[in-house]
Amino acid sequence: MTDDAEKRLAAEAAAELVEAGMTVGLGTGSTVAHLLPALARRGLNGIRCVATSVATEDQARELGIPVEEFSALERLEIAIDGADQVNPDGWLIKGGGAAHLREKIVAAAAERFVVISDSSKPVEALSVPVPLELFAFGLRSTLARLGANVELRDAPRSPDDGVIADYRGEIGDPAALAARLEADPGVAAHGLFPPEMVSEVIVGRGSSAETMDLGAR
Ligand code: 5RP
């Protein structure tokens, strides 16, 4: 099985969790690209979706999945998204596709946040890079504070005008690093998602999809 086939298996299993009438957050990336057709095929009535990127919004609309502005909804019943890495405690690194700010806002709004991945994403220990989104205002001073471990990424500004960068220093304790990054007013978002945010992780492995045991958290 290729990684892509494993992504599809995880995505199809997650699509089964959505029910008619639900409010749904749609993530971003190549795994979510398999979720959208699987969701469209279900033909569920009355679902209301928000998208975490223009690419997802465009693909969803092409498939006939209704997408609305996130300003129209207060809570989401479910959000489904990919990840770059998942550690045994359930910490994620996200943002390989630079959508981590909107992805985190959507995940935080969701009663159930379901992560979908192929079998390469679960790791024993998280490793850099940790994606960042920085405010453009005062960028030079933000970079000076963050130090040499942060590099700007050759990527377009985010839909919220944020500058995409990557932290490449030590990770150590992810909670401590997350707190350090959040303490800087120039950091709009970082790609560390805490276990409290994650309801479950569905991993495509070989020819089936399994739910990862996050028992350590
Ligand atoms: C985008 C993300 C993606 O979910 C993450 O990069 C995984 O992508 P893919 O499903 O293509 O492997 O966080 O910002």
Structural summary, described in words:
By secondary structure, the chain is α/β, with parallel strands linked by helices. It has 2 domains: 3-123 and 193-211, Rossmann fold (3-Layer(aba) Sandwich), CATH 3.40.50.1360; 130-190, ACT domain (Alpha-Beta Plaits, 2-Layer Sandwich), CATH 3.30.70. The protein is built from 6 helices and 13 strands. Strands 2-1-3-6-12-13 form a 6-stranded mixed sheet. Strands 8-9-7-10 form a 4-stranded antiparallel sheet. The longest helix is centred in the first third of the chain and has 13 residues, at 3-15. The two termini are 30 Å apart. Residues 27-31, 81-84, 94-100, 103 line the site of ribulose-5-phosphate.
In short:
This protein has 217 residues and is of the alpha/beta class. The protein has helices at residues 3-15, 32-42, 54-62, 100-109, 139-146, 174-182, and strands spanning 23-26, 48-51, 76-81, 85-86, 92-93, 110-118, 130-134, 150-152, 163-167, 187-190, 192-193, 200-205, 208-211.
Tally of DSSP helical segments: 6
Largest sheet: 6 strands, mixed
- CATH secondary-structure class of the largest domain: Alpha Beta
User: Cα-atom Rg, whole angstroms?
Assistant: 17 Å
The CATH architecture classification of the largest domain is 3-Layer(aba) Sandwich
Structural class, by secondary structure, is alpha/beta
Q: Which fold name is given in CATH as the topology of the largest domain?
A: Rossmann fold
Shape: globular
Order of helices and strands: HEHEHEEEHEEHEEHEEEE
Amino-to-carboxy terminus distance:
30 Å
